[in-house]
Amino acid sequence: MKRLKLIGLVLLVVLVGIQFIPSRTNLDKAVSLSDFIATNGVPENIGHILRTSCYNCHSNNTEYPWYSRVQPVGWFLQNHINKGKAELNFSEFGSYSVRKQKSKLSSMVSQVEKDEMPLSSYTFIHHEARLSQESKKVLINYLNTLKDSL
Questions:
Q1: How many Å apart are CA 139 and CA 137, to the nearest integer?
Q2: What is the pTM of this model?
Q3: Is the per-residue pLDDT at 75 higher than 90?
Q4: What is the residue extent of each domain of the chain?
Q5: Vertex 119 angle, CA 97 and 139, to 5°
Q6: Distance (Å, rounded) from C-alpha 2 to C-alpha 47?
Q7: pLDDT tens digits, 33-66
Q8: How far apart are alpha carbons 120 and 110 in whole angstroms?
Q9: Is 9's pLDDT higher than 80?
Q10: Alpha-carbon Rg of the chain, whole angstroms?
Q11: What is each CA distance from 16 to 41, 65, 107, 123, in whole angstroms?
């Protein structure tokens, strides 16, 4: 029993201690000139869908929930955001080559059609990020039109 209490105490000290090791943040308050919405003159309804369902993980402007300050949750979220931005960063979309932009747009359409994006693990907590059938249709039509115009 003493050993179990010692292990519990050590775990508690470690959990409290890691709270003082911050995670990096992805907060760039300025909207870059190469931002997807700014560069493409995106209509407001499409911009709203993108900001609500995509931008938290795929831009330089993440709005962090309160629980992101609790470690190791904050580290997990930051790692997830870094991976998302490495795959697609809306804040830098305008700086991509036309070929890469078309490829990313095709990939976006495919993933939205297959319900792969936004991730179910994200929409489980962020209900507002779920895409209705109508939102999906509007977004897919816009992305296909944009891709064809490039």
A1: 6
A2: 0.81
A3: no
A4: 27-149
A5: 55
A6: 58
A7: 889 999 999 999 999 999 999 999 999 988 888 8
A8: 16
A9: no
A10: 19
A11: 47, 20, 42, 29
Q: How many CB atoms lie within 10 A of CB 142?
A: 19
Q: Confirm if 147 and 36 have CB atoms less than 8 A apart.
A: no
Helix (H, G, I), strand (E, B) or coil at 27: strand
Confidence of residue 21 (pLDDT cuts 50, 70, 90): low
90, 50 in Cβ contact below 8 A?
yes
The encoded tokens of residue 23 equal 């995670």
Q: Is residue 42 within 8 Å of 36, Cβ to Cβ?
A: yes
* Token pair 């816009």 in the structure block, residue: 142
* Euclidean distance between CA atoms 82 and 105, whole angstroms: 20
Give CA–CA dist 109/40, Å, rounded. Answer: 17
If residue 86 lies in a helix (H) or strand (E), which one and from where to where?
A: helix 73-87
| Omega of the bond leading into 22 within 30 degrees of 0 (cis) | no
